[in-house]
Design a protein that fits this description.
1057 residues, mainly alpha, two-stranded antiparallel ribbon, 50 helices, 66% helix, flat, Cnd3_C, cell division, ARM-like, chromosome
Length: 1057
């Protein structure tokens, strides 16, 4: 009976397996069959649970065993989906979805629900076992099905807490799986539990792995899984800077759907908009627009743009608010209604809006900053639209021109309805806001910019506006008193009104009002001459000096040349000698700073910089406090780039030029505290001294944390980039300054100077790729830079082991950084132009300059540097040489440069001989030698002394390399010759015919080095072919062989030439 029941049970299992397999196969075709197949599979499970055996026993354990039996057969049938190494095909994805739906299926009866719950528990246990399998596909399918089940499972399903804990632990383990797709489904599985306070460890895990994740799909899934909270908001916003477009879009989607506007700080709101609206990907910017339009503007602000601007703090983040308004206007989401305009803020005496026909006095209602910005952007949009449509109407014809003209007319009509009715009303409106105090300073500036859209062609209107401009120009700096009763200027103390934006607004309005040629300069110079009177009489205080100099700075910034200032109220020479130079020597530091700025601007307008101006800037740079030194440094750099450094030096007089016969940069320390010594050096020497000085590390009080050294570094970076425009710069200037900038980039003191580091990072990214010459300068800068950075070399002070270790790490980082710059490919424009330029070059310049620009030249420099140390080395020198060996292994030498390969073998052979007693160094040298051996095409052909000296002369290095005929490569496996008898025979023949070979005129050493890559390859092939011919005829006749050898040598020489 037992055997018969077992056979019957096996037969039933086979039938059950076939039914389940048939259903699963049918679900592979389409999702439309899933509902019907779910019912069929649920019927099979219910029939198995209600079998006659279970009815007769009437025991709950029978139903449980039936579910386990069904589960066992179901799992076996499903196993091929886990084992087979298949791709994510559509058929397999349909099966996965069907299985997850079946696991989440619920029945109407209580008995059926218990069977479903039991099957679900068994299935989850089966899947957890698969999630820890060694097979990659098994883990993937298990995590995929678990994630589908968790996301589809209804809330009312009861599952044991212990089982859920096991599932969560298993998925948290899979979050760190090495397969990205497994990590993705593990994160999806955990997304449903991340909001549970009891599972805070899940959120901590996701926040931990998010910045470390390399796969964009996993990062996207994590971002979509994060809940809105104070802990996750910053992480989500950080993902708006992700390198992958889909991740950035997912971050904005989460911000739209989960994060309310009120929960974000003003800084985070503006950061989100600034990044999203400026994103290059259209999908990301569209998602950001959706966030701003649907969530923030419509839901939170009920479509009111003024209310929306209040959430952005327009006074602090004006550019972001302006960009947001422009986007909303371009999308047609906001537009002023008929009952709103600027005119409603200009009220008549009876309290009603004042129109153009009203003659009563006006009273002004002050605007809030958001309203002022809103109307400025609206009016600018309408003004530009009217101009564009008017231009289109002028160029079009017929009906098209009429349409454009109508659109331009509508825009102008709307603009006239919004703007003040008259110029006097506009002036009253601006004056009221200016007199209201600092709290309305922002609104006043917005209203000033509105004046550029008004028409001042009428004489009366022009007179009113001109008087208002005069008031603005005469308006002094705002001030306050400190505890000691001293006056303190409010603002930056440089620009008119203490704010650069305010000065620009005043300048734009003045240019609009005084649009005639020369009228703008004349008006400002009249005010300057008036304000300069007490300054000339020495009765003015520092505030009057600053006011006068700020106006002068505004004039010089907008001037075209010194010639445009001649014939006005005050002559340019008088401005320089009576105002600017005395201001630069004023006792008050703020007056000195703004005067130095004006001197720099004045020098840019001159055809050639004057001597007094240059001397004053040099003196201010050397002997003034950091804020003034920074301003003088900027002025000197600008003058040098505009007029060239040579012209700036010539301004000091002919007698001084005789002291600069040596064009190289003087790297000796310059005592800048000496009143006379600094004048004995050129401008570049002076700036370089400021770059090297250790005493000038003080920062200014500005928010940018500027320093003198950072300012000089930025100036030198500009000069290096534009060096081709200054042919008079000495050749040694480039590698010296470049090395110093790299050293500053990796120094400790530059960590806090974020702006300076950002500037240098952009500079280094492009510098080496712009030109081959730049790569040559990088190559020349390598050895002096790394030698100066390495502790214990050239008298570098020694310190603790911790400090020495950090210094070595920085030196290694700098060396690898330089190698990366050398290996960076040139931009396509330079690469396309290279063959033509090389074709036009003479034979002497076609190869030798290239060696100086490539990695081959750098390799020779490094090898010579390693040989410069004696056999007995200190610990620092050993570490230095070992580091250079590792750097040398990173270089890619060209097999076509055979002379370079042979020279490197000679140099490294000598190095190997010198370090033969030092096993660690020898281990680093031998692999490089073994790598060079197969690159040598003709090992029997030795490098001559003249060829080596020619290479050294090309690189500009001095090294006495003695090459003998018996030079061999020590401890390096030499390649075995394929024909040893013939090679020995050839050597004897060459010895016997040496007298004849001496009579043959050999080419000069330079000719051997001045052939192109293609000529080198042709020469090598010719020599190999000729040697084979000689070997085949070696047994015929010795005389004939000698003749053929001479012919071969002549052919080789000719090919070399």
């Amino acid at each position: 009976m037992g055997e018969e029941s077992g056979i019957a049970m096996a037969s039933e299992d086979r039938n059950l397996t076939q039914k389940i397999a048939k259903i699963l196969n049918e679900t592979r075709t389409s999702y439309a069959t899933h509902n019907r197949k779910l019912k069929e599979l649920a019927t099979i499970r219910s029939k198995l649970s209600s079998s006659p055996e279970s009815d007769e026993e009437e025991d709950s354990s029978s139903s449980s065993s039936s579910v386990r039996r069904f589960s066992s057969v179901f799992f076996k049938t499903l196993t091929p989906l886990f084992v087979a190494a298949q791709r994510r095909t559509a058929a397999a994805e349909r099966v996965v979805r069907f299985v997850a739906e079946f696991a989440c299926l619920r029945c109407n009866s209580s008995d059926g629900d218990s069977d479903c719950d039991e099957f679900l528990e068994e299935f989850l246990k089966f899947l957890m076992a698969g999630s820890v399998a060694a097979n990659r596909n098994a883990r993937f399918r298990a995590c995929q099905i678990i994630s589908e089940i968790i996301l589809r499972l209804p809330d009312e399903v009861e599952v044991a807490d212990e089982l859920w804990d096991d599932v969560i632990d298993c998925m948290m383990l899979r979050v760190r799986d090495k397969v990205p797709v497994i990590r993705t489904f593990a994160v999806r599985s955990l997304s449903r539990f991340v909001n549970d306070p009891e599972n805070s460890d899940i959120l901590d895990l996701l926040l931990e792995v998010l910045p470390l994740e390399h796969n964009p799909e996993v990062r996207k899934t994590i971002v979509l899984s994060l809940p809105p909270s104070n802990a996750t908001t910053q992480a989500i916003i950080d993902c708006t800077l992700d390198v992958n477009e889909s991740v950035r879009k997912a971050a904005y989607s989460v911000l739209t759907n989960k994060v309310p506007l009120q929960s974000l700080s003003i800084k985070l709101r503006t950061t989100i908009l600034k990044r999203g609206l400026a994103d290059r990907a259209v999908n990301v910017s569209t998602e950001c627009l959706k966030l701003m339009k649907d969530q923030w503007l419509s839901n939170c602000c009920q479509g009111d743009p003024i209310e929306f601007l209040k959430y952005l703090d327009v006074e602090t983040y004006e550019s972001v608010a302006e960009s947001a308004l422009e986007v909303l206007l371009s999308e047609g989401l906001i537009m002023p209604t008929d009952d709103k305009s600027i005119q409603q803020y200009i009220l008549s005496a009876d309290g009603e809006a004042r129109d153009e026909s009203s003659c009563s006095a006006s009273s002004i209602q002050l605007m809030e900053p958001e309203i002022a910005l809103y109307w400025r952007i609206i009016c600018r949009k309408l003004h530009i639209s009217a101009q564009v449509k008017g231009s289109d109407a002028a160029t079009a014809m017929g009906a098209e021109a009429a349409v454009y003209a109508a659109e331009a007319s509508d825009a102008n009509d709307l603009l006239e309805r919004i703007l003040p009715a008259s110029v006097s009303d506009y002036v009253d409106l601006v004056k009221a806001h200016i007199e209201a105090g600092p709290n309305h300073h922002f609104a006043s500036r917005q209203l000033l910019l509105l004046g550029t859209m008004l028409d001042f062609s009428d004489a009366m209107l022009h007179k009113t506006a001109s008087a208002f401009v005069q008031e603005l120009l005469h308006r002094p700096f705002e001030q306050e008193l400190d505890e000691d009763g001293n006056s303190i200027v409010i603002g930056d103390g440089i620009n008119l009104g203490g704010d650069k934006d305010w000065a620009n607004a005043v300048s734009k309005l003045a240019k609009k009002v005084h649009a005639a040629p020369g009228e703008y300069e004349e008006v400002i110079l009249v005010v300057v001459e008036e304000l300069a009177r007490p300054c000339r009489e020495r009765t003015a205080d520092f505030l009057q000096w600053m006011h006068m100099l700020s106006l002068t700075s505004l004039l010089l910034e907008n001037g075209k040349s010194v010639h445009s200032l001649q014939g006005k109220a005050i002559e340019p020479e008088e401005i320089l000698h009576a105002l600017l130079l005395p201001g630069a020597k004023h006792t008050h530091l703020d007056v000195q700073r703004i005067a130095i700025k004006c001197l720099g601007l004045f020098g840019l307008l001159e055809k050639k910089p004057s001597e007094e101006l240059v001397r004053q800037l040099r003196a201010a740079f050397c002997r003034s406090p950091p804020p003034i030194s920074i301003m003088a440094c900027k002025a000197l750099v600008d003058l040098g780039m505009w007029h060239s450094p040579t012209e700036v030096d010539k301004a000091l007089g002919e007698d001084l030029l005789s002291q600069f016969e040596d064009e190289s940069i003087d790297c000796a320390p310059i005592d800048l505290s000496n009143d006379e010594e600094d004048m004995n050096f050129k401008m570049l020497d002076l700036l370089y001294a400021g770059l090297e000085s250790d005493d000038w590390r003080a920062f200014t009080e500005s928010s940018e944390h500027e320093s003198v050294k950072a300012t000089v570094g930025e100036g030198f970076a500009k000069l290096l980039l534009l060096g081709e425009k200054y042919p008079s710069l000495p050749a040694s200037f480039y590698p010296s300054v470049l090395g110093k900038l790299i050293a500053l980039y990796f120094s400790e003191e530059s960590k806090e100077q974020l702006r300076f580091k950002q500037c240098l990072s952009v500079f280094f990214e492009h510098y080496a790729s712009l030109s081959e010459k730049h790569k040559g300068y990088v190559s020349k800068a390598f050895v002096p830079l790394i030698r100066s950075m390495w502790p214990g070399i050239d008298g570098n002070c020694k310190s603790s082991s911790y400090v020495v270790s950090n210094q070595r790490k920085r030196a290694v980082q700098a060396s690898r950084f330089i190698i990366q710059m050398m290996q960076t490919p040139l931009y396509k424009k330079e690469a396309r132009g290279e063959p033509e330029s090389q074709f036009d070059k003479s034979p002497e310049d076609s190869v030798q300059p290239l060696l100086n620009f490539t990695e081959d030249g750098l390799a020779i420099r490094i090898a010579i540097e390693m040989l410069s140390f004696k056999e007995k080395k200190t610990a620092a020198e050993k570490a230095y040489v070992a580091a250079l060996c590792k750097i040398l292994a990173l270089l890619h030498l060209k097999p076509s440069e055979q002379n370079v390969i042979k020279l490197m073998k000679n140099l490294l052979s000598q190095l190997a001989n010198s370090v033969c007693s030092e096993k660690e160094l020898l281990k680093d040298v031998n692999p490089i030698l073994e790598h060079l051996t197969p690159l040598d095409v003709c090992p029997s052909e030795k490098l001559t002394q003249d060829q080596a000296n020619s290479i050294f002369e090309t690189l500009g290095v001095s090294y006495n390399l003695e090459i003998t005929a018996t030079t061999t490569v020590p401890q390096t496996p030499a390649p075995c010759s394929k024909r040893p008898p013939q090679s020995r025979r050839r050597v004897s023949i060459e010895e016997t015919s040496s007298d004849e070979e001496e009579e043959v005129a050999s080419p000069p050493p330079s000719a051997l080095m001045n052939r192109s890559h293609r000529a080198s390859k042709a020469a090598a092939l010719a020599k190999i072919t000729a040697s084979r011919v000689k070997m085949s005829n070696v047994d015929e006749d010795d005389e004939e062989e000698e003749g053929s050898s001479d012919v071969t040598a002549e052919d080789s020489d000719e090919s070399d030439e």
